[in-house]
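== Folding task for one protein ==

=== Format: two labelled lines per protein ===

==== Paired sequence and structure tokens ====
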Amino acid sequence: MRTRTGKGRDELRAEYDFDYSKAVRGKYYKRLLNEGANVVVLEPDVAKAFGNSAAVNDALRSLLDITRSMRRQTTRPSEPTKARR
């Protein structure tokens, strides 16, 4: 087994020399909040059913419309029903 020598451990190329004193924490945080950065990974069989992300969004929107309309149709009565004897 070859052992590493101490030479080159602390030597970085110039393009990898980064000055962390100029770094800004959370630089893109607000932009991500405004634009949205949610990522959803679909299972392969589900991904095959849709051509692109627009098709997935259309399907989910139609599902939301259906669930909203079903909620309106199945409202609960405001008064509890009386038990029959």
The first helix runs from residue 29 to 35. Residues 67 and 77 are 19 Å apart (CA to CA). The chain has a mean pLDDT of 80.
